[in-house]
Amino acid sequence: MIDAAPADPGGRRDAVVVFGSVNVDATSYVRDFPRPGETVHSRGFRVALGGKGANQAVAAHLAGARVELVARLGGDANAEVARSAFARFGLAADAVATVPDETTGVAQITVAESGENTIIVTAGANASFDSEAIRAESPRLGGAALALTQGELPVPAIEAIAAACDAAGVRFVLNLAPPVPVGRAALASADPLVVNVHEARTLGLGAGLDDDAPAEAWRDAAASVVGALARSIVVTLGDRGAVAADPTGAWTAPAPRVDAIDTTGAGDAATGVLAAMLAEGRALPDAVRAAVAAGALAVQRRGTVDSYAGRDDVLELADRTEAV
User: What long-range pairs does 8-15 form, CB within 8 A, spacing at least 24?
Assistant: First the structure.
C-alpha cells in the first residue's frame, strides 16, 4: 500500500523545482477533427491554464509536494489568466517572472468526442529561457529533492538544467515532450527520462515496436537501455498504463479501465505526480503506479489542471494496481 501521508521535510531537501513552460490553453470541443480545408462548429470552448511546466507543477502540488515553479510569462492579459490560476490552486509563483516585450505562451487545442486531442503551441515568453537564466535560478536547487523539466523549453535551457542538477547533486527528471534534440549528456543524467511511445522511438527506444505492442515488450525495451540512454526510464502507454526500468529492475503498471472524456494534460498529471512521489523518496514502481492513477483520473474530466485529482484520490486508486 502507498502511504497516504506526505513526508515530513525535517530539514531535508524536499522541494520539486519545476523549470517549465506556462501557456494559456484555448480549447474547442468538437464531434470530429476537421479535415484540411473544412470548417466545423465547436460544441464548447474554454480558456484555462496550461503548458507542461504549469500542468506538472499543479499536479505535483496537488499530490502533496512542495513545489517551486520557475517560469516566464509575457506582458499581456493572458499572464493574468495564468497568475489567477496559480493563486486559485495555492501554487507559489514567486519564481514566475514577466518578460514585458513577449506574449504569454498559448496552446490552441481541439478535443474530439473520442477524447483525443490536437495541440498547436506558440512558445511566447517560454522561449526566453536560456542557459544564463537557468544559472541565475540554480540557487533554488539548494532545497530540492529533484528538478523537473520538459521539451517545451529551449534545448540550451534543458541542457543547462541538467548540468545545474549534476553540479548540485539533485535528481534530474526530464519529460522529453515534445521530443527535441537534447544532447546525450543531458539525457544520460535523467532519472527518470519520461516519454510516451512516439517520443521513445525518436530516441531509438522501442524502434521495432508498434504502439500497441505488449506492455512487457516496452518494459524490456526500456530495461535494455538503462544506464546507456538514461539512468532510469518511464514509458507511458496511454490507456494501457506505463512501464519503468532502473538499475534494480523493470516493471509494468497497468491502467484501470475508465471512460475517457478528455485526454488533454493527462500525461502531465502523471508526470507531476511521478515527480512528487519520487521527491518523497518512494521507489520507482510505486511512483509509477501513482502516476498512472493520476492520469486515469484526469481523463474522466474536461480540461487540464481542473481535471487533476487530489493526493488521497490518486493514492487510493494507485493502491488497487500492482506494478509487476
Answer: 9/66, 12/145, 13/142, 13/143, 13/144, 13/145, 13/170, 14/65, 14/66, 14/143, 14/145, 14/279, 14/280, 15/65, 15/66, 15/67, 15/68, 15/140, 15/143, 15/144, 15/145, 15/279
Of 113, 134, 133, 121, the residue nearest 40 (C-alpha): 113
**Among this protein's residues, is 268 annotated catalytic?**
yes
pTM confidence score: 0.89
Domains and CATH numbers, the chain: 15-33+42-318 (3.40.1190.20)
- Cα 209 to its chain centre, rounded Å, is 23
Per residue in 265-309, pLDDT (tens digit) is 899 999 999 999 999 999 999 999 999 999 999 999 988 899 999
The residue annotated as part of the active site, out of 14, 25, 262, 268, is 268
| Structural contact between residues 113 and 165, judged by C-beta atoms closer than 8 angstroms | no
Task: Give the model confidence (pLDDT) of 55-84 as tens digits.
Answer: 999 999 999 999 999 999 999 999 999 999
Are residues 121 and 151 in contact, defined by beta-carbon separation less than 8 angstroms? no
DSSP sequence for 98-165: EETTSPPEEEEEEE-TTS-EEEEEE-GGGGG--HHHHHHHGGGGGGEEEEEEETTS-HHHHHHHHHHH
Three-class secondary structure of residue 297 per DSSP: helix
Cell of 239: 490507456
How would residue 12 be classed by pLDDT, with cut points 50, 70 and 90?
A: low
